[in-house]
Design goal:
Blueprint: E1 3-8, H1 11-23, E2 28-32, E3 47-51, H2 65-78, E4 82-84, H3 87-93, H4 96-105, E5 113-116, H5 122-128, E6 134-138, E7 148-150, H6 153-160, E8 173-177, E9 185-192, E10 195-203, E11 223-225, E12 228-230, E13 233-235, H7 243-259, E14 263-270, E15 276-282, H8 289-295, H9 299-315
Parallel strand pairs: 1-2, 1-3, 3-4
Antiparallel strand pairs: 5-8, 6-7, 6-8, 9-10, 9-14, 10-13, 11-12, 14-15
């Protein structure tokens, strides 16, 4: 029987999607790349293949899961299998340098960035940028890896010489213009099937761990701020008709088409002058159930419907959908 094959390395992040597929009686198979054995001499099974491989896999002990996935996706592509978020998407997922090139190509502004491959060159990069405040981050990241706000050359040197400095898993560190948001927030824009689904306002006042998945959420569900309390993740009403939505959504869709993305989340920050800076594309996108429950929009259910429709279209067989 043709199935939806989910390629991933994190069971916690994948469980909500599996639950949604089961609710809709859509056949699936769980391909967990954290411990994978594949006989590449065999033909690929019938079905469609959705990759949710993550750039932060090494933080869960799955250092080579992306590399394994690249090979599996090539094996599938060689046999003409339909893949959603294929090799091009994975190449983008694991490199912010690739992301920024894709964003700039369609006219989306990214923060000014210098990449270094040596720890000692981070201070040189800081001095080369025309800003007092910079952000460091890992090129292959996720979960806020390597993100540190530094406001002087003394602070940079102290960080480099401290035990808290983290080397990037791919050896590349980005030194980047710091964009100050007036209300300490960023916006995450979610696409499913290359169609806009919703935009999420994310509070950053507690730091740079911005993963919206329920397993990453802050305890208590509220962030303390100078104005009182607000939800750390909140869906923005009518974003698609806002000035930001009208300006950004067509360009984000162009990135998805150019890069072979089918499901993705884009993150951007807006400065006090109203300029938007895109700085991250996440192809292993997760969703926050508390924010969704407040607005009655459920991305995993929409994703399950999309996968079911793609499976049905490819095998010309209607699938039973739960009422």
């Amino acid at each position: 029987m043709p199935k939806v094959y989910i390629i991933h390395e994190n069971g916690e992040w994948t469980a909500p999607l599996i639950s949604a597929l089961e609710d809709r009686h859509i056949p699936y198979s769980d391909w967990d790349m954290s411990s994978a054995i594949f006989d590449l001499s065999l033909p690929a099974p019938d079905g469609i293949f959705y990759s949710r491989m993550s750039a932060s896999s090494h933080t869960r002990g799955n250092r080579y899961a992306p590399e394994t996935t690249v090979g599996v996706l090539a094996w599938l592509e060689a046999q003409g299998s339909q893949i959603l978020n294929g090799r091009s998407a994975l190449n983008l997922e694991i490199s912010k340098l690739v992301q920024y090139a894709a964003l700039e190509q369609v006219g989306l502004t990214t923060p000014q960035t210098i990449v270094v491959s040596s720890r000692k060159d981070i201070i040189k990069a800081y001095k080369a940028l025309p800003f007092d405040s910079v952000i460091t981050k890992h090129n292959r990241a996720g979960k806020g890896l390597g993100v540190r706000l530094l406001k002087s050359d003394t602070a940079v040197i102290e960080y480099l010489n401290s035990s808290s400095f983290e080397e990037s898993v791919d050896g590349l560190t980005l030194v980047q213009q710091y964009i100050q948001s007036p209300d300490s927030s960023i916006t995450r824009v979610e696409f499913i099937g290359r169609e806009f689904f919703y935009a999420l306002k994310v509070d950053t006042s507690n730091g740079f761990e911005l993963c919206p998945a329920d397993v990453c959420s802050l305890d208590g569900g509220l962030c303390p701020t100078d104005e009182g309390k607000r939800f750390p993740f909140d869906i923005i009403n009518d974003f698609e008709n806002s000035d930001a939505g009208l300006a950004l959504l067509p360009k984000m869709k162009a990135v998805m088409e150019n890069e072979g993305l089918h499901v993705a989340g884009f993150e951007y920050v807006t400065d006090d002058a109203g300029n938007h800076y895109c700085y991250d594309i996440n192809t292993n996108t997760n969703y926050n159930s508390e924010a969704e429950a407040r607005y009655g929009k459920f991305a995993m259910l929409r994703l399950a419907d999309y996968l079911g429709a793609e499976l049905s279209a490819n095998y010309n067989k209607p699938l039973r959908v739960a009422e």
